[in-house]
Design goal:
By secondary structure, this protein is an alpha/beta fold. The chain contains twelve helices and nine strands. Strand 7, helix 9 and strand 8 form a beta-alpha-beta unit. It comes from Micromonospora craterilacus.
Length: 283
């Protein structure tokens, strides 16, 4: 049984010299992150499609079972809203091809204005994706969460394409007012999403936003420990991404989440061992 965990990025200034060796050349940073976590959100691909050679470097730094959940470019999802996107999708799919099996899912993050009336557009887009790629959709229009008919419509569309619905759980973050600069910034930028915990496929993906205080983050993910353990017992293979506003302790928190699930599910495959920050010596 495998539970993959990860963060929103593979490099962060606050990790340098503390969790990851420093200095590290760019072509080594992902390899060191992959000693902590075995999955990562591919947020950078939202802003620009990377060069194929760059992606080949990502593959070289990770094992074949490492998971990238790669976000589609904003020109596809936000600017053109999934219409007339043949060329940008061709370029994108060609760029990420070196990832091979590491490309766990194509992450279709849709804007909050993409609502129930747009679901037929989503259905047409998902039907055109290559069968070799799994897809996972994140929606932010409130009707998908509060209107049962809209929920069923979206679930049916995703089921037809064997696509997952990615929940972004921000309920713990918004439960109390912000107490740090990073939290105050996130308070104005992160979406206040209704809670969703259902999985549609055998590979559910969860994004969880905690607080800068690690204890508060751990308190807020309790429900996900039980849900994730249940998925594993059902034979599913989930991926859980742990966020905090400053992300200073995100890798250690992701590993802690994995550890806490493993106490509920004996036999869970272990995470890799982190590469030492300082060279190991005998004396």
């Amino acid at each position: 049984m495998h539970l993959h965990v990860g963060c929103a990025m593979w490099t962060h200034r606050s990790w340098q010299g503390r969790l990851l060796a420093h200095p590290l050349p760019a072509h080594e940073r992902l390899r060191h992150y992959a000693g902590w976590c075995d999955a990562v959100e591919g947020n950078t691909t939202f802003y620009a499609t990377p060069a194929r050679d760059t992606v080949a470097g990502w593959a070289q730094q990770t094992d074949p079972d490492f998971r990238f959940v790669v976000k589609l470019p904003k020109v596809v999802t936000h600017e053109r809203r999934l219409t007339e996107v043949t060329e940008p999708m061709r370029v994108f799919l060609d760029a990420i091809e070196p990832l091979g099996p590491r490309a766990h899912a194509l992450w279709v993050q849709l804007p909050g204005s993409f609502g129930p009336d747009d679901v037929p557009t989503l259905a047409r887009f998902l039907r055109r994706l290559p069968a070799a790629h799994r897809s996972a959709v994140e929606v932010r229009h409130p009707a998908f969460f509060t209107d049962p008919r809209s929920t069923r419509q979206l679930e049916s569309t995703l089921a037809d394409a064997d696509a997952e619905w990615i929940p972004f759980d921000t309920t713990a973050f918004f439960a109390n007012p912000p107490t740090s600069d990073a939290e105050r910034d996130a308070w104005t930028k992160k979406p206040r999403m209704p809670l969703r915990t259902a999985a549609l496929t055998d590979r559910p993906i969860v994004r969880y936003l905690g607080r800068d205080d690690p204890d508060r983050t751990v308190e807020g993910w309790g429900r996900w420990l039980d849900i994730t353990a249940g998925w594993l017992r059902e034979g599913r293979s989930p991926t859980v991404f742990i966020h905090t506003p400053d992300n200073a302790d995100a890798p250690t928190l992701a590993r802690r989440f994995h550890d806490e699930v493993s106490t509920r599910v004996p036999g869970l495959a272990p995470l890799p061992e982190p590469i030492p920050v300082e060279p190991t010596t005998l004396f």
